[in-house]
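Dataset card, provenance and construction

Sequences and ligand SMILES were collected as paired inputs. For each pair, a complete structure of the chain with the small molecule in place was predicted and serialized as C-alpha cells. The example below shows a pair involving zinc ion. Curators did not alter the output after generation; any descriptive sentences attached to a record were derived from the structure itself.
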Amino acid sequence: MTIQEVRPTRHPTAELDTALLALRTVEGTALFIDARASSQIVYFVETHHGSQAAAQVFTGFLAGCMHRITGSSVRECRPSGDAVLAIFTGPARVRDALDAAWRVIRFVHDEFDLTYRELLSCNGRCGDRACRGTLPFSVGAGIDDGPVTASTVPSPRHFYRELVGSCVSIAAKLSDVARPPNDVAMTSGAYECGQPYDPGLYEWYPSMTRVGGRLQHVILTRFTEPSVS
Ligand SMILES: [Zn+2]
C-alpha cells in the first residue's frame, strides 16, 4: 500500500484534504494552547483520586478547549499531548486565532475550574503534610503565522497525519513564553499579519524573547475585558 492510496477518514475541509493528498502547503496561523505543569497535575490527581480521574481532568480540558475553537477559519483542531493545536486560514486567521485563545482562557478560568476543582483538590486522605491542597490549572497560548503542510507519516500499523511548518513549532514554544492567566504570546510577524485589531479588546506588550534558540520579537497580548486575573 502506498501513501497515496490511504484516504483520510475525516477531515474538516476540502482544502486540507487536498493539501494532505498532494502535500500542498497553505498559509495558516497556528494556535497552540498548553496546560502548564501538567505532569505535576497528573501526579497530584492520580495520587489523590486515581488514574481515571487524571484522565477525566485532561479529557475535559482538551474537549472543552476544542469546543471553543470554532468559526469558519478553523481548518484543523486537535489534541497534541496535553495541549491543543489549531490551524486557521483566510484573511482573518490571526484575529480569529486570538479570539479563540481568549475563549479558551476564559473557559479554563471559569467553567473548567468550577467543574474540576474537586479533582484538583486534596481529599484529606493523602497523609502528606506538605500536600499543596489545591493545584492551579492554567494554560499558555502561542500564535505564529506561516506556511503549513499537511503530510502523512507511515508506521507499521497506521498512517498518521501531521501538520508541518515552523509556525507550528514556534507557536508551541511561544505557549511557554505566555504568562498565565491571560496572556497570549505571538510573533511580531503574526501580529503584523493580523492588523488591524480592535483597540478596545487587547493590550500589546512587545519584547525580545529567546524562542527556539534565537532572539525574536514577541508580542505579549493581554485581553482587556473582562479580565481573568
Ligand atoms: Zn493531599
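Derived descriptions for this record:
The beta strands are 25-35, 74-80, 83-88, 139-154, 159-164, 183-187, 202-211, 214-223.
The two ends are 53 Å apart (CA to CA).
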